Amino acid sequence: MWSYIIPILTLLVGAVGGFFAGVYYLRRQLENMQSNPAMLQEMAKKMGYNLDKKQLGKAQQMMKKQKFRP
């Protein structure tokens, strides 16, 4: 019986822990992009967009208005 319970419990704990670690990492990256325009430009290029300086400034202002911390 324990040979079924322990693997399932381990899977659930790992999935929940991985989710929260991913959310933490993503929030940190978004916070770093607020102050680093090069990171924001790189992300936009990976998504297929080429931002000019005006668009980049607008995107930074939008990100600064958002709160990534609850």
TrEMBL record:
It comes from the Bacteria. Signal peptide: none annotated. Its main location: membrane. Keywords: Membrane, Transmembrane, Transmembrane helix. The chain crosses the membrane at residues 6-26. It is a single-pass membrane protein. InterPro entries: UPF0154 (IPR005359). Pfam families: UPF0154. It is found in: Membrane. Belongs to the UPF0154 family. This is YneF family protein. The lineage of its organism: Bacteria, Bacillati, Bacillota, Bacilli, Bacillales.
